[in-house]
Records
---
Amino acid sequence: MEFLVKDRSIVTPGMAIAKGPFRYEYGVDKFEDTIISSVLGIVYIENDGVKVVPLEGKYMPKRGDDVIGTVVSINPLSWDLDINAPYLANLHVQDALRYVKDTSNLERIFKVGDVIYANIRDVGESSDIVLQSKERPYGKMKWGRVVKIHATRVPRVIGKKGSMIKLLKQMTKCEITVGQNGNIWIKGERQMEDIVERAIFKIDKEAHIPGLTDRIKKMLETELSR
Amino acid sequence: MSSVLSDIKKEYMISLLKNGKREDGRGLNDMRDLKIELGVANKAEGSCFVQLGETKVIAGVKCEVGAPFPDTPNQGVFTTNAELIPMASPDFEAGPPREDSIELARIVDRGIRESGAIDFQKLVIKEGELVRVLFVDIHIMDYNGNLFDAAGIAAIGALYNTKMPVLDEEGKKTEELMQLPMKKIPVPCTYAKIADSILYDPSMEEESVMDSRITATTEDNGRIAAMQKGDVGSFKKEEILDIVRRSKVRGDEVRSLLKEKFSEMR
Amino acid sequence: MEKDIKFFTNGKRIDGRAIDELRNIKIEVGVFKRADGSSYIEWGGNKIYCAVYGPREAYPRFLQKSDRAILKCRYNMASFAVEERKRPGPSRRGVEIGKVTQGALEPALLLENFPKCMVEVNIEVIQADAGTRCAGITAASVALANAGIPMKELVPACAAGKVDDKIVLDLCKEEDNYGQADLPLALLPRRNEFSLLQMDGDLSEEQLEEALDLGRKGCLEVYEIQKEALKKKYVKEDVSNE
């Protein structure tokens, strides 16, 4: 086995990453005995495994993920939500609330434009995304704002053992809810919301550059002392 | 489908507007960054690239020779065409121009025509028989709000950038080049009305919540050459007059930027 | 078609290039905000923009495929991109180029990850100067990567041709108009197979072989430019933030 690129380097689609019997995960493909990148992304070499985390692209839904989406259309017994995925996600009225008495007018429950925090109950074989929002903390988001980043950068917003999100919450006293799909909801004092928004965009842009936590901490300190 | 703006965002924008603020930090009267580049497509006789915030458009001028319209035998022919190509937005579709692109082209056309920006009589080669035929084609490359101003600025920029062959009496091209007989610089300024606030140069998000809009095209001397109220909604007389006053100031600023670009060109 | 033109002077071509030399190529990545991926290419006197949307659910619905995404390619030339004004809107030439572009790009894409979806490629020529389809495919492949579409490899494209009985790389306008043959090619570099092949003019079997080899060499050079452009986009952002 042999690595052809450095750990954490940028690779383009079709680039050879390694030769030999590797466990290969997302973002790579096999050509003869060579593992090649199948996306534009950053290579991560871990023990015997190699993966490429995409720098661009839409959210790929996974069962169990918590997501934040916007209602874009209403069907007879369900809503369609835009969750930054290639497909719209479906929320059935039975999965939306614990008790629904009247299903004659779904608009009275959620209307087009409402922002919903939900959990992915299932991703069907033909990519049907099924949501549920029955229990807290799921449900309709009120006030605050939603910022959108690349879904692949979400782990960096959360940080190791939640360190980054903790830092953001503590320093700005904002409520922050992170959707795995890259939509992040922020509620707090308006100026604090502004600061969190800028910090999140910085994480999105610089996720692949080492020393991220320190840079964000420094940025927050400078902004808060203004 | 993808263009549904969330209610949270709408509420946020409207609450900011009540304090005279906008989501992107601008004041009600501020334009987004404006970049103008002349001569970007050298197969066109004249061309201009305009970036207004993240909205990007390219206008190109082609000059031909043809017959004048029977009712204007002593004037050149001028046509403006705009294409909302699928490149610019997930909601634009290929095919023949639809309402929006036709309205856009006509607003730009009217501003140029009615201001007397071009001396059409100087475009006559042989009265009643042979005149210059000018086409301004506007390509919308990236749609992020306020196409009217971006397209109008690009069109007038491309016309001033135009160099075309001097023609002999038969309409044959000679080696010599000349500029178009331009007289004025009309500039369109578009204002959106959202929850009783009037704001200049609406972004895409602002356009999706606006009740209505007015585009006012002013000339160098402060006169108004063309206006258009668009979308569903209405304006008070005071609001209209306010928009016109603001358009003159903003229009002059854009005009001086254009003049700067034109002088660099020569 | 042939005109009395001196194609070679002291072994150099009309524009001063060697027989196997490409024109200058510059690619920019991520030039549009609205599109999911985009690029801009200047190739000789060609200026071309490309925007990619998707993957998103395909419409009209009857186009959907249950096992993979479909690829739609639209090639359009601005009315002012050529000497004689082109009528705005679709042309037969544009429709055909869109179709061969799709055929050139699709074999490189991993579309089975996105059943029922479509990926749309929009190519817009702002200034045309021979070889727009190859430049368009080259730019489109970069824009697809910029959109995060999974693929086996990038697709570079480049034409070979014949002027004055010599096989040359990347025809310029005069060579294209008055030369003897034009052979636009796109290459799948890893598989070493061609995914765009068109030809018009007159070639012998030996000349075709020579042209394919030279075209392949040109494509590999274009491939390096594609990779550099993509990497530069992200490396440049590093620097500007530090």
Note: Chain A has three domains: 2-54, 66-140, 145-224.
---
Amino acid sequence: MPMPNSDHIKVKVWRGDAGGGSFAEFEVPQQPAQTVLDVVTWIQRHADSTLSYRFACRVGMCGSCAMMVNGIPRWTCRTHVNKVVQDNRLTVEPLRNLPVIKDLACDMSEFFDKWKRAEGQFSGTNTRAQAVAAISPAEPARRAANAAIECINCAICYAACDVVSWNPGYLGPAALNRAWSLQNDSRDRRHGERLRAISADGGCLSCHSQQGCASYCPNELNPTASIAGLKKMAASAFFRSR
Amino acid sequence: MKAHRRQPLYLAFLLHRLSGLGLALFLPLHFYVLGRALAGEAAFDEALSWTEGPLVKLAEFGLVFLLAVHFFGGLRLLALENMPWSNQHKNYAALAVAIAFFIACGFLLRAV
Amino acid sequence: MIELRLYLAQRISAAIMAPLVLVHLGVMIYAIQGGVSADEILARTRGSLLWGGFYGLFVIAVAVHAAIGLRNILSEWLHLRGLLLSGLCWFIGFALLAAGLRAVAAVVGS
């Protein structure tokens, strides 16, 4: 039994698939400015080449490398080990609230299906033959849309949300945040359909404003604020239709 | 508690839910005791005499705290959902607990 | 769209109760000094239209509010769904309403 090494991190990694699994332990050499993704990559290259995980850009743009790190959902490529390590230990698990494909890679289908259910796609009225719409960046609606727009679909908010875990039908913070930015986009022509989608059961009205989504969003968006905006839209549409 | 839940507004949610649950479970007892007045003043007094014990006083302190914290926490949620967005909700949640505790202490001081 | 109606009923009943709860807290803190007695309570409430209306409205709002709140708990924490969930929710609401109105009648009626 080798002595515990302080220039090594003890890393517990969840291994398994949809049928279940367990933790495997690895000792990973510490490096300066090392990210959690670096740690996972080191394990895959040097300790166990069968480890599955997902990443692409490594610079916080693509949103594909999110995992649970010591119980908190994080973008692993931009999470420095020295910020999250506890007693020289790291626990890395697949994102919560999503079915596992294998090891650290989740099936994101339901996350994106809900994005569609919330009418998350832009549908404009203009064609390319027409001039670009003139929208002042100072317009209140445009500012609301801008505040919500920098989402990278990493599903960290979805993993942080307890309402998703209690009610699998709930659309979740990311899809609703997207719906909010489109409801504030004056070029979009499906505001009515989208409002119906987000007012339906499992929509914005299920949110309990715990703000886990806002606490852990790596881009510092606030889906709870967006959802609160949608609730106001849903309520006033109800009274206007009376 | 799971690591991702260790943030103030989850605790505020949990307190709101548990205080609401506690109040809802207390209501039948509350209504039963008041309903004893139908059987006459003596029966009502007998039902109320049960509230004289020191442990019951402490339980009442708890109930006043539950009502107050559910009230102020609920006002915070109504504001969150119906007023312009504020980034101060962690502070408001802490304030709600503080005021509720203050009110419950005021009740206890007058009760003993 | 059940959820939209429940959401609105929950918030509207809360807003109705807000001033009522404040008065209720005030009365409790005022009345608790020296303990509560049947005499003291009934002297205040018997034959009073004002207190009757106050507590009557309070009971209606709390029955709605508690039934919907418990519905959320039953659904999210105990995973009840469908008819069982809505049936229980209606039962809780009507039981609280009946017991509450009976209590109001008991302290207001003479």
Note: Residues 109-240 of chain A form a domain with the Fumarate Reductase Iron-sulfur Protein; Chain B, domain 2 fold (CATH 1.10.1060.10).
---
Amino acid sequence: MQNIIIGQYVPGQSFIHKLDPRAKLLTAFLFVIIVFLANNWITYVLLGAFTLLAIFVSKLPLRYIYNGLKPILLVIILTFLLHVFLTKEGPLLLDLGFLEVYEGGVEQGIFISLRLLFLILITSLLTLTTTPIDITVGIETLLGPMKKIGLPVHEFALMMSIALRFIPTLLEETEKIMKAQSARGAQFSSGPIKERLKSIVPLLVPLFVSAFKRAEDLAMAMEARGYRGGEGRTSIRLLKWSGKDTTLFIILLLLCVSLLLLRS
Amino acid sequence: MDITIKGLEHSYGKGTPFERKALSNINLSISSGTFQTIIGHTGSGKSTLIQHLNGLLKPTQGSIQIGDFKIQAGVKEKRLKALRKHVGIVFQYPEHQLFEETIEKDILFGPLNFGVSEDEAKRRAAKLIQQVGLDESYLSRSPFDLSGGQMRRVAIAGVLAMKPSILILDEPTAGLDPRGRREIMDLFYRLHEEEGLTTILVTHSMEDAARFSDDILIMEKGGVVLQGNPETIFSNPEALKNLSLDVPETVQFIHRLEERFNKDLPHSVFTLKAAVDAALSVLQKGDDS
């Protein structure tokens, strides 16, 4: 339970921590798009280098990131296997009778898995190095122009920040309830599958009850402090675009151009 | 069951940027049938310590022996469920663990998990619901219709229904009104006396600590700083003050009486009645002279 890093913020002073949240959000967004430009070995190596560089510069402990990836690794491996066994292109590498493995399949499998891995790493890096409040302010300013066509941008950003803010709280709550029920003999992590499945109800019901109660309390507290939505509301945090952010975009542009040139 | 803790150490979040040492070098033995109280400020490691006693947390270093169960750093104990049958924990705000449709089913959850027959479990539920101060008509109601205090009582009944031989209470009366507090604590003490339970109470209330304990343990920053029976612990208000803790109100009262009348009085006065008696004795003697 402690290994989950989604929505977790790790305080720090690195280059990436100090970037403007808007720059980080845009980078993550653009990265998600340009990942799809890569289609041969050299372009994937480029993307990999960018991702590794970003992780290195963020100064986050590698073991921590690796532990956080563990739960997702299963999905990646599954994707890899599906591609290996289902893509029938190029020369035949292995024939097991009931299964055939083609070169194209292996290549495809590696590419798609890498693509997933890069996406997850870059987007986790965003939340690992940016406080939820900064992310919200960033999204709100970036989407600001959309207000003109009547999109509830402020509400959207608020919802997001509340959701992010409560991920760790809910995880903590889950752990607490798991402990309380384990003390009463429920089995979550050992014993037969049937027992483990049965113990989901004693976990989920209290979790939902407390989540609803928390939501109600939060709404009440916000109203009591005069919250009325985004109309005329100013932010205490002023975002500042600095040279660092421009540097990031130059790097990103270079990456983009080289991907376009090198892709086959 | 006797409890022996040797060189216990625990760190949270090992190998993450959030690693934090919560306990260091705890040595403690609690003999069967003792009422042990643990006092300490928030974050002193009390809750971490008690979660080791039924294997919810594993020690990073050291070992814990409970009866013939042994939990050791780096060794996997396979009989955790058997151990948990003997060690009941009432967590802070236990009402958050309620989940069943009816109160009876919720109380039955623990006993049924530990293989008690349904008839026997139901008998226990019917008895316990009265012991915690509700009546049998509640058994068929939903636990979510109750008030906070009533939910607390039901949750406590759910733990007691397991018939543990060691009962661990983590601030069981936090957030209750004074009457609820007294009733719940009296219930725990009665069970402790009648059934010979080993009771481990985590509390912030010096009054409860003084009235019920055989032994008091004071924790600070993950370690034990003071240990002794209530008389010894509360006879030294200075040491407590250094830890920003207080002596019980009755003891404060006795100290004031001593100052005012310049007399030596016995310090182990932990109930309201004893305090009144002490005051009367001083005042009556005062009349004589």
Note: Residues 153-183 of chain A form the longest helix (31 residues).
---
Amino acid sequence: MDNILYTITVFSENRVGLLNQISIIFTRRKLNIESLSVSPSSIKGIHKFTITTYSDQETMEKVVKQIEKRIDVLKAFFYTNKDIVYQEIALYKVPTNKLLEEENLEQIIRKHNARILEITKEYTVLEKSGHSEETESLFNELKQYGITQFVRSGRVAVTKSTIEYVTDYIEEQKSRKDKMQS
Amino acid sequence: MSQKIKGAEALIKALIEEGVTTIFGYPGGAIIPVFDCLYDYREKLNHILVRHEQGATHAAQGYSRISGKTGVVIATSGPGATNLITGISDAMMDSTPLVVITGQISSAFLGTDAFQETDVIGITQPVTKWSYQIRNAEDIPWAVARAFYIASSGRPGPVVLDFAKNAQVGEMKWSYKKCNYIRSYIPVPEIDKAEIVKVAEMINNSSRPMIAAGHGIMLSEAEEELLKLAEKADIPVTNTLLGLSTIPSDHYLYKGMLGMHGNIGANYHTLDCDLFIAIGMRFDDRVTGDAKQYVAQAKVIHIDIDESEFDKNVKTTASIHGDAKMVIKALIPLIEKKSHTEWLDSFKSCDEVETEKVIKPEIYPESEDIHMGEVVNKISEATGHNAVLVTDVGQNQMLSARYFKFNHTKSIITSGGLGTMGFGLPAAIGAKFGAPERTICYFTGDGGIQMTIEELGVILQYGIDIKIIILNNNFLGMVRQWQELFFNQKYSQTPLVNPNFKMIANAYGIKAEDVESREELDGAIERMLNNKGSYLLNIKVEEKGMVFPMIPAGHTINELMLNSTEKYIKQ
């Protein structure tokens, strides 16, 4: 089976050591993590991991179940690109003098919908968000000016589905708690 | 009104709150405050001092497996903690509830490579259900309550609490509340009624069903329900290694053990059945051989409390996520009373071949040398099949699993998943503490016993009674068997030069006998079983004994070997 890029999202309690617990599940199955982003989610106290990896559906099903098995993980899901709206952000540091020599600078910035974050005599920092192909494309165009630094964030994603599984899950758990304690 | 107490005392009080009575452990620098406090509570908590930390984990496993309670281990930081890893991994693989407490250096020094510091959380995360570092005394009740809840609920497993020294000596306001809810953890899921109906229908419509009952039956105490289900629908029952004794060995529906060295009928019928009902088992490769071809012609029902086991190794037709006891209970009313006489009778031809070709030559051998299976069979008979079987790993394990018989559940303690040599002696000791009224028969090899032989000191110190049977062939027998069959008889590093086991036993105050001929065997067994107190038999068995039948690793049941030269061909 050909491997494709999957996006895994994990919702967990905010507790020390969870990243390790999740990443060793990938290590055990020899899955290379392509990108990783961790941040507090919209729900207070709950963290969201977004992980991308090349794999196949069967492996992803197993991996997600293994992740959910960790005690402090609430829910884990996996998606293909068509299931989600996703974005990455890239920063490019370029020598200012080289940029100023370029006649089409405006065109480039316009075409890529890039932003300039900082300009000094020595360097300029540009920012571009988009899919990797899009940030890659700006990278290729800026290469001629000698990019001195480049960084791309891990993917962040939201689902296209109208069902909010995590919110539902938390509601269900609240009623389970009430039942246990009544 | 809550008074202030030290963290070490809070831990001890929390253990008492959780109903702990017995602890297996070993002191050391970073856990001294806990042991200091343990001394004051010695009337309430019985601490068993082992001789090596690995022994403490296996003893706690033996204790837990026989009693159903959570085993508790205490050890120090650094080497104390790293010595526990084998037992923790073993408990993880074999779903055994343990709460393991390790000392840790004061949290102010964490990360400085201080004396006896090791990253216990980092090391244990892959092999525990949960691990947590207690850095403040205030955390103790929460962490301990959670640890016991996690270890014992759902699919049980080991939990590690790494207890920093500052938290042991720090003060806290004592109050305790047991844990029965964690938002992110649903140990016993609600059973899907639609799945129950679907599965019941599959069972009712099957003409050649078989049940594979695993360790989960024991863990959820579903033995009675299993029998009811099997008897009502007239379904043959097979066991995994860890599921042995969940159904009495002499029950008319019991058809033997599955897997590499299991019974021919049990294994062969996985090729013929039209419905395979797996309950509380995980399709381990030692059961399935080539998992891709395993029960491929049949519909497969998988009942398990761990959702991640579904479709992991073998694809299922239907699965029910839930506690085995609750699931079977829900199924029984929907199951039609059936009779599968012809199907059940079809096991007979396999049994006959196995009896003639494998069992008889092993338990009633014609050769002069004593056979391992022969010893197991004699001891099982002499105990009326009422004893607890504890094994080490290797040929001794497979032959005792094959020839020991069971009347009662929770009567086998063996290292299944991890296959830990050296597991047996400490596990047998732990089992005795867990069920003092039962006879513990510990079968081992001359290799396995030497891996944890230091635990004889525990027998000496506490005067406990276990029966130790060394099936001594002066070889690492199972590896030697593979070398004979698959590696051109190159016995690389498997012959052993052994010490005088009788003298070693005697040095620990344990009565012992060497048995070298068949004539001595019955008398020795009788003396061993009649003796009040531990007893060791060092039995010289045939040097190149083999475990058969055997399905070579990764192969299918069609490759089942009856002996070194003959394959099984279905009659």
Note: The domain at 368-541 of chain B is CATH 3.40.50.970 (Rossmann fold).
